[in-house]
Structure formats: structure tokens, C-alpha cells
Specification:
It is built from 20 helices and seven strands. The chain has 527 residues and is α+β, with helices and mostly antiparallel strands.
């Protein structure tokens, strides 16, 4: 992970955790370029010792002691080459889950020296994942090209069918005539032209030794039914010479048969293409889901931990970086019942605040193969850093989103670019063509059947395409990133301060508990 989680928190909540000198600049960068960029500039406020329990008893909640000194931080180095390092991680994990109720692993990185067997083995595993991912990518790209071609074909069919619809309707005579002229032109250009020298165009526009029926095209475009050719001018027909009339009698009958048959066949082909589009989009979504585990595994097997001077090339050395986040919801009811906070706060619609602990592990290990199946044991040194924060729901959501963007952003961007975003550009067309209810109702109307039942039946493909749609929540999240998270109100500042005080106390307890469990010196007992 490239971003420093503490700097990211300072960028997400600058008024509380960013050094005053950088607050304005960090806010501007976050608004223009996002929180990850702002984190590069942010500087976290320093952590000073605080006697938390004493201040909670001696000071009022409205003195906002937590906001004056918001961070608790402790560091512990534990060097034991004769002891496995895994139990240390699991002790802290179990403690956080028991004390906070919720634990989440935010970062999991590693790197190893090029000369170690650990390096070569894990590189082979990463390569295997990359190869599998690329195979699925190639298939997904082929399906995507197919989707694009089908969509454009359907759009052409839609334009053509609109001409048939206008021709078949009886309400607007002007549209009917315009559609008939368009269909005549299509028939001349695509059907009759295949006759070669005997086509209407060839007969009307001939060379020096060719029959020049100059009026043939004009007569064909002017007639509106076969009766216009069969009947004489006295009976309402067109005024044509006999040779032209005989030619048109043959072609006009053929033209009107072509209109009926091509209308039916085109609608059949449109339905087939529409069903095929449904199948291809479904396949593309499946490929997108299948490829993510491979890309995620390949990403996790990348060596992304920050190397240091201990990484000598020929040593059997590996470095691991793990970050755990523990979250406990701050419940103001206890402070209200004790009188620290007025009862009127119960009626206020305030954001929820949480006591947060972030535990960072940095392992320096000498991996030792423990079995023939690729298992390793890890012995060495671990550096643990315990840090506390108080954050509200909005800040936590942004923090997790930005960490995911930083950690897997490139990988998922490849997937999104290959599937979701590409389909997103065509989403309106896809939704239109795959709306079964719309096309079924239209078909029933055209066949003059009863209207279908009102649309309570769920479209079985609506859930399928929700994968590609940007829902309201995502739009709101984007809005938050551009406009920033709302500042705390005066009442929310009290809640944040109390959540910070609680977080500091829990953080110190976690640090003390680990030291005491290993018979190390710890803080003296307190209330």
C-alpha cells in the first residue's frame, strides 16, 4: 500500500487530525484531486501523553479534551528468532474482536530478498495467477466486441423497423407516405439492384445503346399501390405509356410482397439478436466475476512492502506489513445517564461516532520451509504500533473506499475498463434492448391483443444489469469526495471528543494487555 493510513485519516478529517499549518492546503487538494493526493501533503498532529481517566473525571465533556489531543500512540518492538511470529498477530486480532466487536484487515503486504527460496516460489505462484487472468481477459474482450457489434446492429434494425411502423400506422398519412418512399429507396438499392441490367435504375439511366425509360424511377416513386399501375388515368391510375406500365406491374407487386415479408423477417431477426445480446452481456458479467479472484490473488502475491536496509539480496529475509482496524461504536447513553451530556442530545439527529484502533505490524522474518506442500514458518522481529482515532460514519466510509482504491484500484480499474465502463457507455442502449416487458407490450399492441398485466412481474435481468449501473449511493459518495465531508456541528464535536477519549483509553488497554500477557513492564493499574 503506497498511502500512509495515518496521513489518509488526516486528509479525510483534517480539522481534527491534520497539523494546522497544512489544513487549508489539504482541503483544497482533497476537493480538486481526491483524498489520496491530499494524504501525500497531510501531516498528522503529534501525539502527547494524556491521563485519560483523570481528565474524564475532572473535566466536563464540553471542554472537548479529546479534540485538543486526539491521538494515542504506542510502539512495541518484539525480537524473538526462536519463536513463531503468527501467535502475536492472532493474539491482537482476538483481543480487538473481543474488546471492540469488529476487526478488519486493511493492509497485507510482503517483500522478500531475491536470493531466497521464498521469493522464487511466490513469484511462480503470482505468474500462474496472472496467466489465468489473461486467458479470461482475452475471452472477455472477444465477448465485449461481440456486444458492441450486436448493439450497433440492433440500432440499425430499430431505425428500419421504425419505417415499417410508420408505414403500417393509419393515423398520420404524411408519415405513411414518407415511410413508403424510404422503403422504396431501400428496395431499389438493396433488392432490385441485384437484377443487374434489368433493374429499374439500369433501365431508367442507361447508356447510348440501352433502353432509357427515364420516367420509370419517377413513376415507381410516385405510385402508392398496385392499383395506380393497373388502372388507367381515367380510373385514378398514373398516366404512363404501356411499356413503362408493364414493367411497373411486375416490380410493384414484387415490392409490396417484399414489404410484408421483410417486415416479418426483420422483426424475427431483431428478436434473435436481442436474445443473443442478453446472453453475451450475461457472459461478460460472469467473466468479470471470474477474473477478479485471479487478479486479486496476483495482486496479493506482488511484493509491495517497503524494503529497508535489512533486505540484503542473498539473505533469507522477508518483510511483512499488516494493518488491523478495530471499531467500537460510541454510545452516548452512558454519558447522558451520568450527566456528562444533557438529555436533550437524545432528540438530536447526529452522526454516529466510533472509537477506532489501528494496529500496524511490521515483521522482519527468516522464512523456514515447514513441509513439502509450500508451508513456511516465520521467526524474527515484529514492530507493533497502536494508534487511536475517533471517526464518524462518513469518514469511515471514505477511508475504506480510498484504501480499497489505493490497494486494488489499478486491478479493478482494468476490469472496469474492460467490462463495466465499456458497457456503461452503452448502458442506455443495452437497457432499452433488454427491457423484455417493453418489447412484449409493444408486440402485443401491434398484434391487437389485450394489454399485458400491469408490470408487477420482476424483470429477471434487472438484477443482472444492476452490476453495471451506478446507483444513487455511489453518486453520493462521489459527491462527498468533491465537496468534502460536512464539518462537525457543536453537538457533534462533543460526541467526537468523547469517542476520542474512549478510543485513547481502549488503545492503551490493548497495548498494556499484550505486554502483561508476555510478562513485560506496563502502565500502573488505573480505574
Amino acid at each position: 500500500m503506497a498511502v500512509d493510513i495515518h496521513k489518509l485519516i488526516a486528509a479525510v478529517s483534517p480539522d481534527t487530525y491534520c497539523d494546522k499549518e497544512f489544513i487549508a492546503e489539504v482541503k483544497d487538494i482533497a476537493k480538486e484531486e481526491g483524498y489520496l493526493k491530499a494524504a501525500e501533503k497531510a501531516k498528522v498532529v503529534s501525539s502527547d501523553y494524556m491521563e485519560v481517566q483523570h481528565l474524564r473525571l475532572a473535566k466536563s465533556a464540553f471542554s472537548l479534551q479529546g479534540l485538543k489531543n486526539p491521538i494515542e500512540k504506542h510502539r512495541l518492538d518484539y525480537d524473538a528468532f526462536a519463536q513463531n511470529l503468527e501467535p502475536i498477530y492472532f493474539f491482537i486480532l482476538d483481543y480487538i474482536q473481543a474488546e471492540y466487536g469488529e476487526a478488519e484487515r486493511l493492509v497485507d503486504n510482503f517483500t522478500s530478498t531475491a536470493g531466497s527460496g521464498f521469493f522464487s516460489e511466490y513469484q511462480q505462484r503470482a505468474t500462474r495467477m496472472q496467466e489465468e487472468a489473461m486467458k479470461i481477459f482475452q475471452t472477455a474482450n472477444a465477448v465485449l466486441r461481440s456486444v458492441l457489434n450486436i448493439v450497433y446492429d440492433l440500432k440499425e434494425f430499430k431505425l428500419r423497423l421504425a419505417q415499417y411502423d410508420d408505414y403500417n400506422q393509419k393515423d398520420d398519412e404524411g408519415k405513411k407516405i414518407a415511410a413508403l418512399l424510404s422503403l422504396k429507396q431501400i428496395w431499389l438499392d438493396q433488392v432490385d439492384i441485384k437484377r443487374g441490367n434489368s433493374s429499374i435504375k439500369a433501365l431508367a439511366v442507361g447508356g447510348a445503346n440501352q433502353p432509357n425509360f427515364i420516367t420509370l424511377i419517377d413513376a415507381f416513386m410516385a405510385l402508392r399501390s398496385l392499383d395506380d399501375v393497373i388502372n388507367s388515368p381515367e380510373k385514378g391510375g398514373l398516366d404512363l405509356n404501356e411499356r413503362v406500365r408493364r414493367l411497373l406491374q411486375q416490380r410493384v407487386g414484387e415490392f409490396f410482397r417484399w414489404i410484408k415479408e421483410s417486415d416479418v423477417e426483420l422483426r424475427k431477426r431483431f428478436e434473435i439478436e436481442r436474445k443473443y445480446l442478453m446472453s453475451q452481456v450475461n457472459s461478460l458479467r460472469l467473466y468479470s466475476q471470474w477474473i477478479k479472484p485471479y487478479l486479486k490473488a496476483a495482486r496479493q502475491l506482488e511484493q509491495r512492502a517497503s524494503p529497508d536496509a535489512s533486505m540484503a539480496s542473498m539473505f533469507n529475509t522477508a518483510i511483512f506489513e499488516l494493518v488491523l482496524l478495530g471499531k467500537a461504536k460510541y454510545d452516548p447513553e452512558g454519558d447522558i445517564q451520568s450527566g456528562e451530556i444533557p438529555k436533550s442530545f437524545r432528540k438530536l439527529d447526529l452522526r454516529k461516532y466510533h472509537s477506532i484502533i489501528i494496529v500496524e505490524f511490521k515483521y522482519r522474518s527468516a522464512p523456514d520451509r515447514s513441509d513439502q506442500r509450500g508451508g513456511y514458518t516465520y521467526r524474527g522481529k515484529v514492530t507493533m504500533t497502536f494508534t487511536s482515532y475517533g471517526l464518524n460514519d462518513d469518514e469511515l466510509n471514505v477511508l475504506k473506499k480510498e484504501l480499497a482504491k489505493d490497494d486494488m484500484g489499478d486491478v479493478y480499474q482494468w476490469i472496469e475498463g474492460a467490462t463495466t465502463e465499456s458497457l456503461g457507455a452503452l448502458q442506455d442502449d443495452i437497457d432499452e434492448f433488454l427491457d423484455n416487458k417493453k418489447w412484449e407490450e409493444k408486440k402485443k399492441k401491434e398484434e391487437k391483443k389485450e394489454e399485458s398485466k400491469n408490470g408487477d412481474d420482476e424483470n429477471p435481468f434487472s438484477a443482472l444489469f444492476s452490476f453495471f449501473k451506478k446507483d444513487k449511493n455511489k453518486k453520493d459518495e462521489g459527491k462527498d469526495e468533491k465537496e468534502g465531508i460536512d464539518k462537525d456541528t457543536d453537538e457533534e464535536k462533543v460526541f467526537r471528543s468523547q469517542a476520542i477519549m474512549e478510543a485513547r483509553w481502549k488503545c492503551r488497554k490493548a497495548y498494556d494487555s499484550y505486554k502483561k500477557s508476555n510478562s513485560m513492564p506496563a502502565f500502573p493499574p488505573v480505574l
